[in-house]
Design brief:
Order of helices and strands: HEEEHEEHEEEHEHEEEEEH
Bound molecules: cytidine-5'-triphosphate, calcium ion
Organism: Mucilaginibacter pocheonensis
Helix content: 25-40%
GO molecular function: phosphopantothenate--cysteine ligase activity; phosphopantothenoylcysteine decarboxylase activity
Structural class: alpha/beta
Radius of gyration: 18 Å
Strand order of the largest sheet: 5-4-1-6-9-10-12-13
CATH topology: Rossmann fold
Cofactor: FMN; Mg(2+)
EC number: 4.1.1.36, 6.3.2.5
CATH class: Alpha Beta
Number of strands: 14
Number of domains: 1
Distance between the termini: 20 Å
CATH architecture: 3-Layer(aba) Sandwich
Shape: globular
Strand content: 25-35%
CATH superfamily: CoaB-like
Family: In the C-terminal section; belongs to the PPC synthetase family.
Largest sheet: 8 strands, mixed
Amino acid sequence: TSTIKKKLLLANQQILVTAGPTYEAIDPVRFIGNHSSGKMGFAIADELASMGANVILVTGPTAQLSKAQTIKRIDVTSAAEMLAACESNFKNSKACIMSAAVADYTPAHVAPQKIKKQDGGLNIELKKTTDILKSLGEQKAEGQILVGFALETNDEEQNAISKLQKKNLDFIVLNSLNDAGAGFKKDTNKITIIDRSQQKTVFELKSKDAVAHDICLKVVQLING
Ligand code: CTP
Ligand code: CA
């Protein structure tokens, strides 16, 4: 497609994208995080912008920068902050692509001062975070498209299908850590897309930009019925 034609694919559509990890504070100097680089989510946001969408990018801590100047970036740190930013922007969005690596657990209490080391070990009590995607799935209105990711090491397809159903998604992007060239800090990714009818599309290993294109085209197809 030419650049001009491409710009029309998602013209005037607001699309919410999440990217990066979340950091869950333990005390003023420490946190629980994960290895997400934000690369996949930023590539998706750029691709949606080049298809003409009004992109809102909610991102956890990352060194990534967007190429497209039109993207509205909202920086958050914790899963709770990401939830709040998503909830306030989902209603007016045509679609949401949830590629962030959201913490499943957060410290039950944040120490107000730096925890001093003592003899013996240290136990940190954790509580569950809200599943943002599941919560958006419960709020989803007719015509809205919701896309999730699944990162799996085993029983990949079965686990992905169960997430797709539990979270009321339109499709899920399965990443297997067993695929060479796929994963956190890499510039390439290998995905399988599974949709609501459990139709499965296996893609080749490719650059994260090319993977983003495949994911965004699927969103375009769903929006256009
Ligand atoms: N997700 C979310 N909020 C959370 C945890 C996950 O929105 N608190 C989203 C992720 O952004 C991703 C999808 O849910 O799009 C699946 O994340 P994943 O970690 O693969 O699955 P979980 O449902 O968290 O299950 P588990 O980690 O036990 O495999
Ligand atoms: Ca998880």
